[in-house]
C-alpha cells in the first residue's frame, strides 16, 4: 500500500508537470548499502551494579542490495520547478550482529554474536524546491536549496547464536534461525542544498547535502526470551537528527538515455526510550535509550527521459 501511494504521488506530480512543460525522467538502479546500527539503553538507575549503557545491540556491518525506482521532473520553461521521487526495496543482505551486556565500569558480562538477515522493507524520498528561494547560477554551476522528506519501513534480524568475549550456557541455534528481529518504521524531513555542475554537454555531477530530523520506532522481538511477555518485547521510540550526502555522476548515452553512478553516506543520532514488556498490560519498565546509525551506499542505474 505504501509503495502504491509513493508511485501514485509521483505520477500525479508528473502529470501535473507535463501540462506545464516538465521534462520527465524515469530511472532504475541497483544500490549496495553497508550500515552500522546500534541500539542501547540505560538501566543503571535500577541497580548500581549495572553499566551505562546496560545493553548494546549492534549491527556492526549489515550489508544489503536494493532495487530503486525514481521519477524526476524538470521545468523546461525555466520556472525553477522540479521534483525528485524515489522508492527502494531490499533484495538480499548479510552481516554481523553483536549483543553486549555491561556491569558498572562497562565490564562486559555477556557477549553473543549472530549473522544478519534482511527482511521485507520499503524506503521512499521526495525532494522539492524550497519556496521563495530560487536557484543561484554561475557559469556551469547551479545551487538549488530544497526541502526533503523520507520514510522507511524495514526489518533486520539476527540469526544463529555463538559466544563472543564471554557468555553463559547457550542453546543450540541453527545459523539461519532468527534469535532477535527489529522492525524499523519512521520518517525524516528537513532541508538540503543541491549543487549541479555541467562537466560537458553529456556529463554532469550532482551533489546533495541534507540536514534532517524525524522519528524512528523500533519493535524488538527476542525469540529466545520468555520473561518479556508477548512479542514485540521491547519498543524503542527515538527523536532523530541526521546528515546525508550524495554525489552522482551522469553520462548521457543518447538524447533520451543516461547512465548514473552515485555514492552517498549518512549519519543519524537518536535519543528516546526503550519500553520492556511493551506488549504486556503493564510494561516492565521504560529506560533512556540511544540510537547511532551510519551508512554508505554505491549505486549504478539508467534513466530514460521523455
Brief synopsis:
This protein is mainly β. It is built from 1 helix and 12 strands; from the N terminus they run H-E-E-E-E-E-E-E-E-E-E-E-E. InterPro entries: OMP_A26_sf.
Question: Can you walk me through this structure?
Answer:
The chain is elongated, with a radius of gyration of 22 Å. Strand 2 (50-75) and strand 3 (82-94) form a beta hairpin. The two termini are 27 Å apart. It has 306 residues and is mostly beta strands. It has one helix at 2-18, and strands at residues 22-42, 50-75, 82-94, 96-103, 107-129, 136-138, 141-163, 178-198, 203-222, 234-252, 257-276, 285-305. Strands 1, 2, 3, 4, 5, 6, 7, 8, 9, 10, 11 and 12 form a twelve-stranded antiparallel β-sheet that branches. InterPro entries: OMP_A26_sf (IPR053724).
Q: Structural class of the secondary elements? A: mainly beta
Uncertain ranges: 1-19
Q: Give Rg in angstroms.
A: 22 Å
Sheet having the most strands:
12 strands, antiparallel
CATH domain class = Mainly Beta
Q: What shape does the CA trace take?
A: elongated
Secondary structure layout:
Elements: H1 2-18, E1 22-42, E2 50-75, E3 82-94, E4 96-103, E5 107-129, E6 136-138, E7 141-163, E8 178-198, E9 203-222, E10 234-252, E11 257-276, E12 285-305
Antiparallel strand pairs: 1-2, 1-12, 2-3, 2-4, 3-5, 4-5, 5-7, 6-7, 7-8, 8-9, 9-10, 10-11, 11-12
Main features:
single chain; mainly beta; Lipocalin; 12-stranded antiparallel β-sheet; 6% helix; elongated
Amino acid at each position: 500500500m505504501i509503495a502504491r501511494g509513493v508511485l501514485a504521488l509521483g505520477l500525479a506530480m508528473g502529470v501535473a508537470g507535463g501540462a506545464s512543460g516538465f521534462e520527465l525522467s524515469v530511472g532504475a538502479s541497483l544500490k549496495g548499502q553497508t550500515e552500522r546500527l546500534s541500539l542501547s539503553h540505560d538501566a543503571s538507575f535500577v541497580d548500581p551494579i549495572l553499566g551505562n549503557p546496560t545493553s548494546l545491540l549492534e549491527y556492526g556491518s549489515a550489508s544489503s542490495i536494493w532495487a530503486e525506482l525514481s521519477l524526476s521532473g524538470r521545468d523546461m520553461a525555466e520556472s525553477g520547478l522540479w521534483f525528485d521521487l524515489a522508492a527502494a526495496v531490499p533484495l538480499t543482505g548479510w552481516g554481523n550482529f553483536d549483543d553486549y551486556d555491561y556491569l558498572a565500569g562497562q565490564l562486559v558480562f555477556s557477549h553473543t554474536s549472530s549473522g544478519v538477515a534482511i527482511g521485507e522493507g520499503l524506503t521512499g524520498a521526495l525532494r522539492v524546491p524550497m519556496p521563495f528561494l530560487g536557484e543561484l547560477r554561475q557559469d556551469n554551476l547551479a545551487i538549488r536549496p530544497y526541502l526533503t522528506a523520507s520514510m522507511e519501513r524495514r526489518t533486520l534480524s539476527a540469526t544463529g547464536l555463538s559466544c563472543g568475549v564471554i557468555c553463559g550456557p547457550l542453546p543450540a541455534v541453527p545459523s539461519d534461525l532468527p534469535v532477535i528481529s527489529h522492525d524499523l518504521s519512521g520518517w525524516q524531513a528537513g532541508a538540503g542544498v543541491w549543487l549541479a555542475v555541467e562537466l560537458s554537454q553529456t556529463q554532469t555531477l550532482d551533489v546533495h547535502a541534507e540536514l534532517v530530523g524525524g522519528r524512528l520506532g523500533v519493535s524488538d522481538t527476542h525469540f529466545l526470551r520468555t520473561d518479556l511477555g508477548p512479542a514485540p518485547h521491547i519498543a524503542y521510540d527515538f527523536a532523530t537528527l541526521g546528515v546525508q550526502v550524495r554525489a552522482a555522476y551522469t553520462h548521457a548515452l543518447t538524447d533520451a538515455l543516461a547512465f548514473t553512478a552515485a555514492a552517498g553516506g549518512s549519519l543519524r543520532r537518536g535519543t528516546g526510550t526503550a519500553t520492556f514488556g511493551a506488549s504486556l498490560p503493564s510494561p516492565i519498565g521504560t529506560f533512556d535509550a540511544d540510537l547511532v546509525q551510519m551508512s554508505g551506499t554505491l549505486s549504478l542505474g539508467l534513466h530514460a527521459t521523455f
